[in-house]
Amino acid sequence: MLTESQLQALEKAKTAREAQGEIELRHPGYLCAQDTYYVGHIKGIGKIYQQTFIDTYSRLALAKVYTEKNSLVAAEMLNDKVILFFDNEQVVLLRILTDRGSEYNGHKERHVYDLYLNLEDIEHKKTKAYSPQTNGICERFHKKTMKTECYEIMFRRKIYTEQTEIQQDIELWLEFFNRERAHSGKCCYGKLLWQTWLKKSS
After folding, report:
1. 120 with 79: CB under 8 angstroms?
2. Which long-range contacts (CB under 8 A, 24 or more apart) does 127-130 make?
3. Phi, psi angle pair for 27, to nearest 5°
4. How far apart are CA 103 and CA 34, in angstroms?
5. Which residue, 66, 107, 181, 184, shows the most beta carbons closer than 10 Å to its own?
6. 35/101 Cα distance (integer angstroms)
7. pLDDT bracket for residue 137 (50, 70, 90)
8. pLDDT band at residue 94, thresholds of 50, 70 and 90?
9. How does residue 134 score in pLDDT terms, banded at 50, 70 and 90?
């Protein structure tokens, strides 16, 4: 049995790890991250924002583009893609980590995103104020992976005139990223993300 001082020391160490961008990883669905990424202004379409969702254990990613950035689209992303995926995979989504942007943060009784999480019985964890690095998984994915490996190549090859066309090509890239590209993440050890995700049942 741990003493009160030992429990306080453990909690303090956990808080320090989170502040440095370290998060607890146990299994797929234990903690996932969601964030908004501004893709850019596309002529004929307008501003494009991406809602990104990453399972922090497997690093498996889902994404959907929108022309708006608000709580409605943040919740719609979960309803349209994430919950359906987790249900099909028979994995329980326990908690989601977001930053404190207005699309994720507001009055709990009226905020669409929080209302949706309550409806689905998903715990909402938020990054510490002025510590965006605590959602570093999404930040790195946006700047080091999605930008260079997906968007820069897509926009060199093709002129897009509809939002749906962008989404279709993102889905093709994500299929490659999730199922064919080896990853050196903390729980992946050079395996495919899909192989790590499948450990949910082991």
Report:
1. no
2. 127/97, 127/98, 127/99, 127/100, 128/18, 128/19, 129/100
3. -170, 165
4. 11
5. 66
6. 9
7. confident
8. very high
9. low
Q: Quick check: 152 and 161 in contact, CB under 8 A?
A: no
Q: What are phi and psi of 24, to 5 degrees?
A: -80, 130
Average pLDDT over residues 114-118: 96
The rounded distance, in Å, linking the Cα atoms of 54 and 105 is: 19
Residue identified by tokens 């494009």 is 48
Whether the predicted pLDDT of 22 surpasses 60 = no
Total number of residues shown for the chain: 202
Taking phi first (over 0 means left), then psi (-120 to 50 degrees means alpha), and beta for anything else, what does residue 200 get?
alpha
